[in-house]
UniProtKB/TrEMBL annotation:
Name of the featured protein: Ethylmalonyl-CoA decarboxylase
EC number: 4.1.1.94
Main localization (coarse): cytoplasm
GO cellular component, one term: cytosol
Function: Decarboxylates ethylmalonyl-CoA, a potentially toxic metabolite, to form butyryl-CoA, suggesting it might be involved in metabolite proofreading. Acts preferentially on (S)-ethylmalonyl-CoA but also has some activity on the (R)-isomer. Also has methylmalonyl-CoA decarboxylase activity at lower level.
InterPro entries: ClpP/crotonase-like_dom_sf, Enoyl-CoA_hyd/isom_CS, Enoyl-CoA_hydra/iso
Pfam families in UniProt: ECH_1
GO biological process: fatty acid beta-oxidation
Location(s), subcellular: Cytoplasm, Cytosol
Catalysed transformations (reactions): (2R)-ethylmalonyl-CoA + H(+) = butanoyl-CoA + CO2; (S)-methylmalonyl-CoA + H(+) = propanoyl-CoA + CO2; (2S)-ethylmalonyl-CoA + H(+) = butanoyl-CoA + CO2
Protein family membership: Belongs to the enoyl-CoA hydratase/isomerase family.
Length: 288
């Protein structure tokens, strides 16, 4: 292909990308509420990301999608960092997508809004998975729907024994839309992942540990943040450049044993787009 032709094609693909990005941002910033907060501790090398929408059990609004991505961008640039803890505000993790937002997406079935939201969040959650930091989800209270998907983005999960974890998407007439199925199959294998995804069963922290979804359990008498920090610190004792290098190697290794995550995510988005606003999804939204 001639150089001129290559230049004009890359110009076209850049415009398509920037058009997609503009439409994603326009859609997400219409649905406001809550925040995603980041505290960086230079001394320990550990950052704390908090999903903050406690009145809705930390449901993720449109504007929180955007803030989630912004915080990840900050972490990508954090050269001296070693670790990250992702948690929810008010002793609960996350109840998934804000149902008001999901309802708005479902109403516009004929638009590609569900796909815009899903592809945005898949990109952001993949970037979280690939951060050159050791990442831990601190899970207490509820981690349901997209909240359960989010906990799978981290390298480890430290979970309260009585936490309630459920991939409720099927119950909502939906499939996962934030990359959760791909990551769950990688974590647990196909059979165990399918059992959770197709039953929408809600399991405790103890049961999550039994099937390999939780790496460490804490109880009533433990301070959640202290328990999680102490778990994480075991993996942060070497210099940040060594930890970052190890994480990069692990990320590359997990990519090479399967089709590219981007390809698998694109398939998931198509499936999500087809279900969102369909009969099962509308019936579930009417029940809520
Ligand atoms: C990516 C696609 C997806 O994530 S689809 C899946 C979306 N998520 C869900 O279906 C979970 C919906 N929520 C629930 O099932 C329950 O609220 C759970 C999380 C189990 C908590 O139950 P419970 O302890 O009884 O609290 P509650 O239901 O009274 O909730 C307190 C207030 O929070 C709200 N809330 C909760 N989850 C969401 C959500 N995802 N979106 C919007 N609002 C949510 C509830 O409506 C309730 O509000 P209010 O106090 O009645 O005004």
């Amino acid at each position: 292909m001639g150089l001129q032709m290559q230049r004009s094609l890359s110009h076209v693909s850049f415009s398509i990308c920037s058009d997609l990005r503009r439409r994603q941002i326009d859609l997400l910033r219409k649905h406001r509420g809550g925040s995603v907060d980041l505290e960086v501790n230079e001394k320990t090398g550990i950052a704390l990301m908090t999903l903050n929408n406690p009145k809705k059990k930390n449901a993720i609004t449109g504007s929180m999608h955007l803030e989630f991505e912004e915080r990840i961008e900050e972490l990508e640039k954090w050269e001296t960092g070693k670790g990250l803890i992702v948690k929810g505000c008010g002793n609960t993790f996350c109840s998934g997508g804000d149902l008001n937002f999901v309802r708005a997406l479902a109403k516009e079935k004929d638009s590609d809004n569900p796909s815009l939201m899903s592809s945005f969040m898949q990109n952001a959650t993949t970037r979280l998975s690939n951060l050159p930091l050791i990442t831990v989800a601190l899970v207490e209270g509820f981690a349901v729907g997209g909240g359960a998907e989010l906990m799978t983005c981290c390298d480890f999960r430290v979970v309260h024994s009585s936490a309630r974890i459920g991939f409720l998407e099927a119950q909502m007439g939906l499939s996962t839309g934030w990359g959760g199925s791909v990551r769950l199959v990688h974590l647990l294998g196909r059979s165990k992942a399918l059992q959770l995804l197709t039953s929408a069963r809600v399991i405790s922290g103890i049961d999550a540990q039994k099937i390999g979804l939780a790496d460490e359990i804490f109880g009533e008498s433990d301070d959640p943040l202290e328990a999680t920090t102490s778990f994480l610190t075991k993996y942060l004792k070497f210099p940040s450049e060594v930890i970052k290098a190890m994480k990069r190697v692990a990320v590359n290794a997990s990519k090479s044993d399967s089709k590219s995550v981007e390809h698998l995510n694109a398939k998931e988005t198509d499936i999500f787009q087809n279900l969102c606003g369909g009969p099962a999804n509308l019936a579930a939204l009417n029940r809520k």
